[in-house]
Amino acid sequence: GYLVPSSFTPNNDGLNDCFGVAYWGNVSYFRFSIYNRWGELLFYTSNPKRCWDGRYKGKLQMPATYVYMIEANGICGRIFRKGSVVLFR
User: 30-41, pLDDT tens digit by residue?
Assistant: First the structure.
């Protein structure tokens, strides 16, 4: 399966600084979105190699719980994950 972390610490120490999935393998379709508690889209990418660094419009976001949605088509079919991630500072 695809392991999605439950928290991350974007403090530039080189450990858990970016939220995403480390390895997707061969996917033909990919959508990764991060939302705040008000449903505002903070991050979006269609590149499986990108991850969220805890910023929105260049500003560091507050420690809080954020919602993610991931959609992809992999070798085993459609993948959909929705959950929450905690940003710690």
Answer: 999 999 999 999
